[in-house]
Automatic annotation (TrEMBL), chain A:
<keyword id="KW-0408">Iron</keyword>
<keyword id="KW-0809">Transit peptide</keyword>
<protein>
    <recommendedName>
        <fullName>Iron-sulfur cluster transfer protein NUBPL</fullName>
    </recommendedName>
</protein>
<keyword id="KW-0547">Nucleotide-binding</keyword>
<dbReference type="GO" id="GO:0005759">
    <property type="term" value="C:mitochondrial matrix"/>
</dbReference>
<dbReference type="GO" id="GO:0016226">
    <property type="term" value="P:iron-sulfur cluster assembly"/>
</dbReference>
<dbReference type="GO" id="GO:0046872">
    <property type="term" value="F:metal ion binding"/>
</dbReference>
<dbReference type="InterPro" id="IPR033756">
    <property type="entry name" value="YlxH/NBP35"/>
</dbReference>
<dbReference type="GO" id="GO:0032981">
    <property type="term" value="P:mitochondrial respiratory chain complex I assembly"/>
</dbReference>
Automatic annotation (TrEMBL), chain B:
<keyword id="KW-0408">Iron</keyword>
<dbReference type="GO" id="GO:0016226">
    <property type="term" value="P:iron-sulfur cluster assembly"/>
</dbReference>
<dbReference type="GO" id="GO:0005829">
    <property type="term" value="C:cytosol"/>
</dbReference>
<keyword id="KW-0411">Iron-sulfur</keyword>
<keyword id="KW-0067">ATP-binding</keyword>
<keyword id="KW-0479">Metal-binding</keyword>
<protein>
    <submittedName>
        <fullName>NUBP2 factor</fullName>
    </submittedName>
</protein>
<dbReference type="GO" id="GO:0140663">
    <property type="term" value="F:ATP-dependent FeS chaperone activity"/>
</dbReference>
<dbReference type="InterPro" id="IPR033756">
    <property type="entry name" value="YlxH/NBP35"/>
</dbReference>
């Protein structure tokens, strides 16, 4: 009977979920948005940084935090022009470093710039836990989390540990990137995190001399994927040397060139 | 164990392709390197240990292939113009190419060990190992599993950014 089947499925789901960590919100943080992709090098950190800054610029009353969950390759310190070890509060929580009004925390503040983090999954899990809960975030309206590439331990740890308001998936229009972005979306579906939409990055390159436009990574790949998955395109970002230059120098484009097309 | 050594016993050199950063072109370079070596007359194999984002099958247009078993283990998929490059990737084990592999470390380690010891590579001059971004489970497990064999070295790929 169908009700008997459903009861059995519910019981099974309850038993299976017993071993999983319980989701607990971070104190003081109203909404968490994660920026992920599946594929590496598509512009997650760049997008996360600029999203955080744009949220702050749109409403100066909002408090925004930025967490760099990329344990292996933390990019946020360089992009936000921040350096140094975080101080500890009397309650033994790490104080996030602030720049441009955004509270930031990253593995990059805890290790030397060139030191590799060659850790297995279990150690990474506990590091992510610390970066989430042992930080004095204060009262935040939004916490933007920059995820590492892939669909592994960090993504699972973050989504199982805290309630996430939504995920933004970044991709370039390239086939190989779209394949991984699709997997990323699939992963969020599996862990019941709503996907807010896709961002198409590096969509077109305009030659600074002759203004000729080249779609280096293909055209409309992300638009097609969005249609397949039933998601919105949240943004389309061109491949512009300004974006890369400003990130490398720690002055993200939303701050340094708010009027530009990028 | 002798059985573990057997499958890689015929491989003369193993080259790891790493980067740390994602999206710099590791898979692209691994594929081109393998094709170039094949062009130079060498016997080549590619091991794709990027479990979360296996790109190599698509790059060589074999994403719909399946792997078979023989008595020494899994048979790699043969790719390239003369079908002489041996390729193994998790991409072949997925039911659909879009399926996500959302695994924690220990499960990834187990599969990587199998990829190293249970694939019938045969006689190869070079085995190119394409890795995912980062310096994590996949990398540690791959190096550990390959330690008893002839690990020639690693090539690091990066962009100027």
């Amino acid at each position: 009977s169908s009700s008997g089947d459903e009861a059995l499925r519910d019981k099974r789901a309850r038993i299976l979920s017993r071993g999983l960590p319980k989701q607990k919100p971070i104190e003081g943080v109203k909404q968490v948005v994660v920026v992920a992709s599946g594929k590496g090098g598509v512009g997650k950190s760049t997008t996360a940084v600029n999203i955080a800054l744009a949220l702050a610029a749109n409403d100066s009353a909002k408090e925004i935090g930025l967490l760099d969950a990329d344990i292996y390759g933390p990019s946020i310190p360089k992009m936000m022009n921040l350096k140094g070890n975080p101080e500890l509060t009397p309650k033994n929580l790490m104080r996030p470093l602030k720049n441009y009004g955004i509270a930031c925390m990253s593995m990059g503040f805890l290790i030397e710039e060139t030191a590799p983090v060659v850790w297995r999954g279990l150690m990474v899990m506990s590091a992510v836990e610390k970066l989430l809960r042992q930080v004095d975030w204060g009262q935040l309206d939004y916490l933007v989390i920059d995820m590492p590439p892939g669909t592994g331990d960090v993504q699972l740890s973050v989504s199982q540990n805290i309630p996430i308001a939504g995920a933004v998936i970044v991709s370039t229009p390239q086939d190989v990137a779209l394949l991984d972005a699709h997997k990323g979306a699939e992963m969020f579906r599996k862990v019941h995190v709503p996907v807010l939409g896709l961002v198409q990055n590096m969509s077109v390159f305009q030659c600074p001399k002759c203004k000729h436009e080249t779609h280096i990574f293909g055209t409309d790949g992300v638009k097609d994927l969005a249609k397949t998955l039933g998601l919105d395109i949240l943004g389309d970002v061109p491949l512009h040397i300004n974006i890369r230059e400003t990130c490398d120098s720690g002055q993200p484009v939303v701050i340094s060139q708010p009027q530009s097309d990028a | 164990t002798p059985a573990e050594r057997a499958n890689l016993a015929g491989v003369r050199h193993i080259v790891l392709v790493l980067s740390g950063k994602g999206g710099v072109g590791k898979s692209t370079l691994s594929t081109e390197l393998a094709l170039a070596l094949r062009h130079a007359g060498k016997r080549v194999g590619i091991l794709d240990v990027d479990l979360c984002g296996p790109s190599i099958p698509r790059m060589l247009r074999v994403q719909d292939s399946a792997v078979h078993q023989c008595d020494s283990g899994w048979v790699p998929v043969f790719v390239g113009q003369d079908k002489a490059i041996a390729l193994m990737s998790i991409g072949f084990l997925l039911e659909r190419p879009d399926d996500a592999v959302v695994w924690r470390g220990p499960k990834k380690n187990a599969l990587i060990k199998q990829f190293v010891t249970d694939v019938a590579w045969g006689e190869l001059d070079f085995l190119i190992v394409d890795t995912p971004p980062g310096t994590s489970d996949e990398h540690i497990s791959t190096v550990e599993a390959l330690r008893p064999h002839q690990l020639l070295g690693a090539v690091l790929v990066t962009t100027p950014q």
